[in-house]
């Protein structure tokens, strides 16, 4: 094989890559925060919520967890406009990520809630807190702490999965790589570079999640 | 313009779904075999070997599957051969699945108590014998639910092969949409077909896990 | 009118009837020990009084308020009756002070500064003022249980239910918790406690309730119950625990 890797295009296209990185970061920031909040709500609904809420939330979670993210994205971006719900590609990408992480986060957080010792609920109730107050002030934080590593991994998975939003022309890092390869015909090099950046981003997201964890949970262990 | 009935749409999608199933099977079995080989490396007492497999796993779990597919597609192309999409797709999915399965299985092997290693070593077994007769039979049991669960990720992962041009269920969805201009219906069906493939596996994984937990509690 | 009125209370778990018609009236300032074998229904009775278990029949009222299943009634009841658990059940993510402040702020909507002042007073009362900023996993079992008592007291209940509060403690830590309870009794707090500490029951309690197979089998002042048991079951129980 006589092939010479050529990265001479890199300086010229660095701004495009940077722009893509920023979009990917924005996607995971918005998707991560809103997705976890949605996950908390759904976990509450499935574990402790009223019966009428359990079935629809369960259906949502199962539907999302058993279909590819790419199809969810296409359905939102291409399918919804035909029933009158239209949005630009970035909004669609954000929405898809929130919905996706919400479903996976739900099951992870639910496991944390269900591992709560019964005495914690009883102590909260015996102090005259309502079920919702007990959940919010007593159960939630230790539950999140229990499953924070798993939730962090899921956020990384969703971030990596976001690379397909380029398919609806959202201009993320993968979009930048596609653009560069179409201009330079250096496909392999373009994807090597973006892959390495994704790896760095994965490590970065993991660190940020760990940092958030240390802030939210100053104590090392949860009961 | 030709009129497409709902049945036409569904039939075309189901035909394409065969390729999704086939690619999933190949990737899962290939990934499983490679994963088993990597597992021995990952839990090897030789540090360099376990480090090397660890890095492999880190690399494939820390980068997008889509990138891995692009790299397989264009990387194989560097050898000057014309690479069919299905080859690159299969290769990437196998390498990717192997990384995840190795990590799942390592967790299972490590959850077997130290005492089992020590007891079997005290009986004079070599490392391979320990694995073969003592550790793996126990690990296998706890490994089944998460392994079945991961097969769902493989099926969903095959959707990305549509991006490098392999015609399976997702690609068929795009093609049919372009012909019918009914994205809502078409992608709705595509999602339902994926759901029909994945949900039974998800559910079995859950049921198996629950059974296993009950069995363990009764010990 | 008695402070706590328990009338014909029944409780079943499935086909298993754990409480078979309990009658018990508790006057203000009384300290009552509930003794009996495990499975006799004594913990279940306490849990019913706090509404942690729903009763299958009969009625319970505290200071005139009926126990009912809806949230409003339950909350009203629980504001009057505090509960201390065998396993402490401190909230692991909050400091000792935070544990005592939480429900004041959440339930009673007490401003933070005021809740903190109350928490400091209550922790002082159980001898743990210096542990305000300590987390539960930094405290011994005895200290955790004393924080739990402070936490219940901060809600200013008119009665406290103590469910085997020394059973999970190492023997050398039991006395520090009992000392706190003894002090509460001396201050006139109404106490209902399920306990295995017979000496404590004899010294501190105004009445002793012996439960057997879901019924109040014998009841009376400690000197009668311990010195002169009327039934073979109580004699056997006291013989077992070495306090006949």
Provide an overview of this structure:
The complex is a heterotrimer of chains A (223), B (219) and C (244). Chain A is 78% helix and 0% strand. Chain A is mainly α and 223 residues long. Chain A is elongated. The longest helix of chain A has 39 residues. The N and C termini of chain A lie far apart (59 Å). Chain A contains eight helices and no strands. With 219 residues, chain B is mainly α. In chain B, 81% of the residues lie in helices and 0% in strands. Chain B has eight helices and no strands. Chain B is flat. In chain C, strand 7, helix 6 and strand 8 form a beta-alpha-beta unit. Chain C has a single domain, classed as Rossmann fold. Chain C has nine helices and ten strands. Chain C has a six-stranded mixed β-sheet, sandwiched between helices. With 244 residues, chain C is α/β, with parallel strands linked by helices. Helices cover 39% and strands 25% of the residues of chain C. The chains are: A mainly alpha (223), B mainly alpha (219), C alpha/beta (244). Chains in contact: A-B, A-C. Chains A and B meet through helix 2, helix 3, helix 6, helix 7 and helix 8 of A and helix 3, helix 6, helix 7 and helix 8 of B.
Q: Percent range for helical residues of chain A?
A: over 70%
Order of helices and strands of chain B: HHHHHHHH
Question: Which structural class best describes the helix and strand composition of chain B?
Answer: mainly alpha
Tell me, what's the shape of chain A? elongated
Helical/strand content category of chain A = mainly alpha
Mean pLDDT of chain A: 94
Low-confidence stretches of chain A: none
CATH class of chain A: Mainly Alpha
CATH superfamily of chain A: MetI-like
Q: Can you write the helix and strand succession of chain A as a string?
A: HHHHHHHH
The CATH architecture of chain B would be Orthogonal Bundle
**Mind telling me the CATH class of chain B?**
Mainly Alpha
Q: In terms of quaternary structure, what is this? A: heterotrimer
DSSP strand tally of chain B: 0
Q: Compute the gyration radius of chain A: what is it?
A: 21 Å
Distance between the termini of chain B: 67 Å
């Amino acid at each position: 094989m006589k092939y010479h890797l050529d990265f001479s295009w890199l300086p010229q296209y660095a701004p495009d890559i940077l722009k893509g990185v920023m979009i990917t970061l924005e996607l995971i920031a918005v998707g991560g925060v809103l997705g976890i909040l949605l996950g908390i709500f759904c976990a509450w609904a499935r574990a402790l919520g009223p019966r009428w809420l359990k079935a629809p939330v369960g259906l949502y979670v199962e539907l999302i967890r058993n279909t590819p993210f790419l199809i969810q994205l296409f359905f939102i971006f291409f399918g919804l406009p035909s029933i009158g719900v239209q949005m630009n590609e970035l909004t669609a990408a954000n929405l898809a990520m929130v919905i996706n992480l919400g479903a996976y986060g739900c099951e992870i957080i639910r496991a944390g809630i269900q591992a709560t010792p019964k005495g914690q609920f009883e102590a909260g109730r015996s102090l005259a807190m309502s079920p919702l107050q007990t959940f919010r002030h007593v159960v939630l934080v230790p539950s999140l702490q229990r499953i924070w590593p798993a939730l962090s991994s899921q956020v990384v998975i969703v971030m990596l999965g976001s690379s397909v939003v380029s398919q609806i022309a959202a201009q993320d890092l993968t979009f930048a790589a596609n653009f560069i390869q179409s201009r330079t015909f250096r496909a392999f090099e373009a994807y090597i570079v973006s892959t390495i950046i994704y790896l760095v981003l994965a490590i970065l997201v993991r660190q940020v999640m760990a940092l958030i964890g240390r802030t939210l949970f100053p104590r090392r262990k949860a009961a | 313009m030709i009129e497409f009935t709902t049945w036409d749409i569904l039939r075309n999608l189901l035909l394409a779904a065969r390729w999704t199933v086939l690619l999933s099977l190949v990737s899962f079995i290939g990934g499983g075999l490679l994963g088993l080989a990597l597992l021995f490396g990952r839990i090897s007492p030789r540090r360099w070997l376990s480090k090397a497999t660890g890095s492999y796993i880190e690399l494939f779990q820390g980068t997008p599957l889509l990138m891995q597919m692009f790299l397989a597609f264009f990387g194989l192309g560097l050898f000057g051969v014309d690479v069919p999409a299905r080859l690159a797709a299969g290769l990437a999915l196998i390498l990717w699945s192997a990384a995840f399965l190795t990590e799942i299985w390592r967790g299972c092997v490590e959850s077997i108590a130290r005492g089992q290693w020590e007891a079997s070593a005290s009986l004079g077994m070599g490392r391979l014998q320990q694995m073969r007769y003592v550790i793996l039979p126990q690990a296998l049991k706890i490994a089944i639910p998460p392994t079945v669960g991961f097969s769902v990720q493989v099926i969903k992962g095959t959707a990305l092969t549509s991006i490098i041009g392999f015609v399976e269920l997702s690609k068929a969805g795009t093609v049919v949409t372009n012909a019918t201009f009914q994205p809502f219906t078409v992608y709705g069906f595509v999602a339902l077909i994926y759901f029909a493939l994945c949900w039974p596996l998800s559910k079995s994984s859950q049921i198996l896990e629950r059974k296993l937990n009950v069995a363990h509690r009764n010990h | 009118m008695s402070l706590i009125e328990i009338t014909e209370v029944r409780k079943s778990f499935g086909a298993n009837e754990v409480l078979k018609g309990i009658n018990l009236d508790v006057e203000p300032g009384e300290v009552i020990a509930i003794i009996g074998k495990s499975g006799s229904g004594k913990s279940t009775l306490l849990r019913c009084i706090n509404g942690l278990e729903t009763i299958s029949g009969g009625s319970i009222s505290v200071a005139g308020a009926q126990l009912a299943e809806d949230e409003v009634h339950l909350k009203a009841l629980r504001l009057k009756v505090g509960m201390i658990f065998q396993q402490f059940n401190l909230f692991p993510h909050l400091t000792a002070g935070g544990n005592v402040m939480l429900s004041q702020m959440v339930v009673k909507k007490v401003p933070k500064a005021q809740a903190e002042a109350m928490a400091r007073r209550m922790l002082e009362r159980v001898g743990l003022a210096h542990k305000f900023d300590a987390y539960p996993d930094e405290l011994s079992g005895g200290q955790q249980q004393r924080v739990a008592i402070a936490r219940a007291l901060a809600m200013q209940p008119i009665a406290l239910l103590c469910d085997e509060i020394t059973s999970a403690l190492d023997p050398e830590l039991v006395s520090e918790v009992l000392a706190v309870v003894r002090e509460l009794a001396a201050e006139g707090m109404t106490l209902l406690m399920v306990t295995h500490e017979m000496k404590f029951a004899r010294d501190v309690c105004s009445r002793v309730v012996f439960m057997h197979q879901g019924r109040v089998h014998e009841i009376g002042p400690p000197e009668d119950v311990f010195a002169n048991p009327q039934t073979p079951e109580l004699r056997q129980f006291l013989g077992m625990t070495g306090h006949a």
